[in-house]
Design a protein that fits this description.
38% helix, 7-stranded mixed β-sheet, Rossmann fold, 215 residues, alpha/beta, globular
């Protein structure tokens, strides 16, 4: 069980890092993120949701990065391979005006995501327990998000059926994947590679934006 002092410490550190990265959130949003962190820490004692279970590491390594791409989110978004919920749970907290579908093929992680959405009342988030390539949606999405995929080409191959012709794919990477981008299928075009700069952390990160090639 998380004590009041621990809760307060996490809240204070989160507020500090948000301010240092010029991320504006409401007090309600911050409280939701702190509760989300508690849930990760609790579930991690039994299930391997993420390799990181320290609150400050989660904030610096995952949460701030996720929030820094909020401006790339569209009206209808799908996270392919949602894992423990980075970046989509954070984006859903910051962007209640957008719709999110989280696809996760591992049952324990899908159950965790559903519990998070229930606990935080994220009614604009839908969790799908299925493999990405097996999921068929009645409507396509403006934005296909990925953070867990090792290879961009594979992500595009498995998820292109989910994206609108005018939509885009956003892949979060720990480095600029020059080799992957140079070998992309001619069905796709690179729209932009945007650095993700986390204040106080010199780790290289970027968001790769990809669209369908214009015919």
């Amino acid at each position: 069980m998380i004590t009041y002092d621990v809760h307060k410490k996490i809240n204070k550190f989160l507020e500090k890092r948000l301010a240092e990265n010029s991320i504006a959130l409401t007090e309600e949003d911050i409280e939701k993120i702190v509760r989300y962190i508690h849930m990760i820490m609790r579930w991690n004692r039994v299930y391997n949701l993420t390799a990181d279970s320290d609150a400050e590491v989660l904030i610096d390594k995952h949460i701030i990065e996720s929030l820094l791409i909020a401006d790339l989110i569209k009206e209808k978004n799908v996270d392919v391979g949602a894992g423990a919920g980075f970046p989509s749970i954070l984006l859903a907290i910051k962007r209640p005006d957008a719709m999110f579908t989280l696809i996760e093929s591992r049952g324990k992680k899908a159950r965790f995501l559903k519990d998070v959405c229930l606990a935080l009342q994220l009614k604009h988030v839908n969790v799908i327990y299925k493999r990405v390539e097996e999921y068929v949606s009645n409507t396509k999405f403006d934005c296909v998000l990925s953070r867990a995929f090792a290879n961009i080409q594979l992500m595009l191959q498995l998820s292109e059926h989910l994206c609108l012709p005018e939509g885009e794919f956003v892949a979060l990477k720990n480095f600029v994947p020059k080799e992957e981008l140079s070998s992309l299928s001619d069905k796709f075009q690179i729209l932009a590679v945007r650095p993700i700069v986390v204040s106080g952390d010199d780790k290289q990160r970027c968001a790769v934006r990809i669209g369908f090639a214009q015919k």
